[in-house]
Design brief:
Helix content: 25-40%
Shape: globular
CATH topology of the largest domain: Creatine Amidinohydrolase
Distance between the termini: 26 Å
Number of domains: 2
Strand content: 5-15%
Number of strands: 16
CATH class of the largest domain: Alpha Beta
Oligomer: single chain
Strand order of the largest sheet: 4-3-2-1-5-6
CATH architecture of the largest domain: Alpha-Beta Complex
Bound molecules: manganese (II) ion
Length: 451
């Protein structure tokens, strides 16, 4: 459920109403194009640990979160065009756990809510004949006997996902809230780093400031001190602070009503060379953000990031050659081996990044860039991340040292910088009619100077 918000519930409610209408329209079109009359979406089930009576933390899946911020297992949304959507709310009778309270909040007025204690009762409140209904969600034991027309039809999912890239005013409001919480967490993490905390201690500071538990975050935070910052998805969270502190890379976001923020900052413990490199990366990131507007081809944004990375490497004396020569030889991919950004929304890496159209056909990645997650041309309402980085990754450096790129890299400089691990600066951007709104920088500004 959504946490504390700066938005009045009445405003959220009217925004949600307009959003849900659009979802209904989009879904009705998708159903019609794919030959179904109705849609049934499952939130997901509690997954038991093998040979144990515990379950894994529950995550509602994105196709369900499209409809409601309710994050409870075994709930269903049933939608038939031109009818108010039905929410089947699962309220188990169980004295071991506290049953979830009936849904409440800015969004509930738009649903016909039917409360059921289990899946069998849920089936009973749905139409008897689901023979023209498409089902979206994970398989569960009884599903076969429910008589749905199709389970997770790929073409329908594609139609639905395509439309998710353009965010409505409601979704933008949620994303701004997620950014605000994330910025608050980041500021606390920065203070914890300055105070000499361990990676784990920094995470606790982040969580406390966001007011979220770890399982409520949109992804596991990457909190890396020193050379660990070179591990792109570093997951360890060391409980002891290292003897010497050089740097912190923190990639962590918060969630509001199912929507994610995805924010990365890098800090230096001292004021030397590495601070200067961080400042260069902020400037470069800013330049890349300036290029975000409707009509921008994300593949070009990514390739431009490589050109700018070559310049930064050259200015920071990490190269022994010109920026152009380094770019041509593929040296930038040694230091920037991931994509420049991705769609953001209900999922951190949101759906539909490659789709040319709802009907089919993917836009390929540029050759030599296998990890780019977005190839579409930006439209107003897209929300993307902008996350340039420069890392000192042993395995990639070793590979470069063994081939013709070796003579293009200043190895003594690399050796000096290695202990800092790397830098990533990541903001979330909402594409506007003429440019973009930087949700992250706005959120930091608001947190630092509350009105
Ligand atoms: Mn990201």
């Amino acid at each position: 459920m959504p946490g504390a918000t700066t938005l009045p519930a009445s405003e959220l409610s009217s925004l949600f109403g307009a959003y849900l209408q659009a979802v209904c329209r989009r879904s009705a079109q998708a159903l019609a194009s794919c030959g179904y009359r109705a849609l049934l979406v499952h939130s997901g089930s509690l997954l038991p640990v093998f040979e144990d009576d515990r379950t894994y933390p529950f995550e509602a899946n994105a196709p369900f979160k499209v409809w409601t911020p309710l994050a409870e297992p075994d709930c269903f949304v049933y939608f038939q065009p031109d009818q108010i959507p039905v929410l089947v709310f699962n309220q188990p009778t169980n004295y071991w756990h506290k049953p979830p309270a009936p849904p409440e909040g800015y969004w509930t007025a738009y649903f016909d809510i039917r409360t059921c204690p289990d899946r069998e009762s849920a089936r009973a409140v749905l139409p008897p004949d689901l023979g023209t209904t498409a089902y979206l969600g994970e398989a569960f034991a009884e599903l076969g006997s429910w008589g749905t027309a199709a389970k997770n039809p790929a073409r329908l999912i594609r139609h639905l996902d395509f439309g998710r890239a353009v965010k409505s005013p409601y979704e933008l409001a949620c994303l701004r809230e997620a950014s605000r919480l994330g910025a608050r967490g980041h500021l606390a993490a920065q203070r914890a780093f300055a105070a000499g905390e361990s990676e784990f201690g920094i995470e606790l500071a982040f969580l406390a400031a966001c007011g979220l538990r770890e399982q409520e975050l949109p992804y596991n935070p990457i909190i890396a001190l020193n050379e660990s910052a070179s591990v792109l998805h570093y997951q360890v969270l060391e409980k002891h602070a290292p003897a010497a502190r050089h740097s912190l890379l923190i990639d962590a976001g918060a969630e509001f009503a199912g929507y994610a923020s995805d924010i990365t900052r890098t800090y230096s413990a001292g004021d030397g060379d590495f601070s200067a490199l961080i400042a260069r990366m902020h400037a470069m990131q800013h330049a890349l953000c300036e290029g975000v507007r409707p009509g921008a081809d994300w593949r070009e944004v990514h390739l431009r990031a490589h050109r700018l990375t070559a310049q930064v490497l050259q200015e920071a004396e990490i190269l022994t050659c010109s920026a152009d020569e380094a770019l041509a030889a593929g040296v930038t991919s040694v230091f920037l081996p991931h994509g420049i950004g991705h769609l953001l929304g209900l999922e951190v890496h949101d759906a539909g990044g490659f789709m040319r159209s709802p009907e089919g056909g993917d836009i390929p990645r540029p050759e030599g860039h296998p990890y780019l997650r977005l190839t579409r041309t930006l439209e107003e309402g897209f929300v993307v991340t902008m996350e340039p980085g420069i890392y000192f990754i042993d395995s990639l450096l070793q590979a470069a040292q063994a081939d013709k790129r070796a003579r293009l890299i200043n190895w003594s400089r690399v050796k000096t910088l290695r202990k800092f691990g790397g830098i990533r600066i990541e903001d979330d951007l909402a594409v506007t009619a003429t440019g973009c709104e930087n949700l992250t920088r706005e959120a930091f500004r608001a947190e630092l100077s509350p009105t």
